[in-house]
Amino acid sequence: MADSRIEKLAELVVNYSVAVRPDDKVAIMSNSLSMVLANSIYAKTLQAGGNPMIFFHNPDKILYRYGTKEQIEYVHDPIRTVIEKYDVRINIWAEENTKELSRVDPVKMEWFSRARKDLVKTMLQRAAEGKLRWVIAPYPTPAFAQDAEMSLSEYEDFLYNACMPDINDPIRYWENVSREHQKIIDWLADKKEVHITGKETDLRLNVAGRKFINCDGHYNLPDGEIFTGPVEDSAEGHVYFSYPAIERGHEVTGIRLWFHNGKVIKATAEKNEDFLNKTLDTDAGARYLGEFAIGTNYGITGFTKEILFDEKIGGSFHLAVGAGYPESGSHAESAIHWDMVCDLRDGGEITADNQTLYKNGRFVI
């Protein structure tokens, strides 16, 4: 029997997250694992008057194994067309094996990323201008469940509850979240310096003139964060990330970063340090911050090893090295955008212009 929650998730994605309009060109990025959700999104898009097309993700593991440098760098015209011309891009996140890229040479991944840097920039710019609406939505797979140390049925419950805490009216739920976020954003509107302290963490960021973005289900499902792009040369201090940072199948644990004039001048890790530093050397912008964010989804109570969930954990903050989102005022450009998450529930604090905003994982304003 089909899970009725798939239909509800598809409706949330199409009619709220990207709000498909008549005649919209809609790209649905899927693989064979998530076709039941892709088909439901396809149908909902047609009902909304859009023109959907399903694109299958290329098997990167085969490309990295057999491809030459030129083949890895090659960008197919349909992918470029979606980024440059389509109105909506819906990416369904479903993995068969989350570790299948863990032994790929990082240099090959750098080739891939650098060749697509212009597309990343175009996508972010079009999104900031309102010309491209996009969302990432998850689909439960055994691989995700194993990483989260759950059975598949437990993980399905976790996933759908995180995306739709109010299963009867998920759109109203996210509209309420949006209003609560806005109160915090309004308080932050005139603030200039953010100071984050916690375990092995003492970091200052300048956010003067930058805009905090309300993440209320329009870009990610599940959602629940507010973020901005710090002034690019402002980060000073050091930070320890209590959770593993996972990028392209590589799990990097115990990350410690030191910043001066906005740049990561030293980076260490307890596991996969070489991958960390090679990724930070992808291009000139990869050692600067593109994002500072605070997670607000207290329904996500534990670490799952999937950044779509983990960056939203209520009681955490995260930083992203690399590209920033232009709508926040960020000028950070890079081929990468790598989120790293830190728990603040045990003694952590965030102040803005010396006023306490956040303590022990809770807003206190």
Task: Indicate the topology.
Blueprint: H1 4-17, E1 25-30, H2 35-47, E2 51-56, H3 60-66, H4 69-73, H5 77-85, E3 88-93, H6 106-115, H7 117-128, E4 133-138, H8 142-147, H9 152-163, H10 170-188, E5 193-198, E6 201-206, E7 213-215, E8 225-228, E9 236-240, E10 245-247, E11 250-252, E12 256-260, E13 263-268, H11 273-280, E14 289-295, H12 307-310, E15 316-322, E16 337-343, E17 349-352, E18 355-359, E19 362-363
Parallel strand pairs: 1-2, 1-3, 3-4
Antiparallel strand pairs: 5-6, 5-17, 6-9, 7-8, 8-14, 9-12, 10-11, 12-13, 14-15, 15-16, 17-18, 18-19
Q: What does this entry look like structurally?
A:
There is one protein chain. This protein has helices at residues 4-17, 35-47, 60-66, 69-73, 77-85, 106-115, 117-128, 142-147, 152-163, 170-188, 273-280, 307-310; strands at 25-30, 51-56, 88-93, 133-138, 193-198, 201-206, 213-215, 225-228, 236-240, 245-247, 250-252, 256-260, 263-268, 289-295, 316-322, 337-343, 349-352, 355-359, 362-363. It has an eight-stranded antiparallel sheet. By secondary structure, it is α+β, with helices and mostly antiparallel strands. The protein has two domains: 4-163, Thermophilic metalloprotease-like (3-Layer(aba) Sandwich); 190-363, no CATH class. 33% of the residues lie in helices and 27% in strands. Helix 1 packs across helix 2 (35-47).
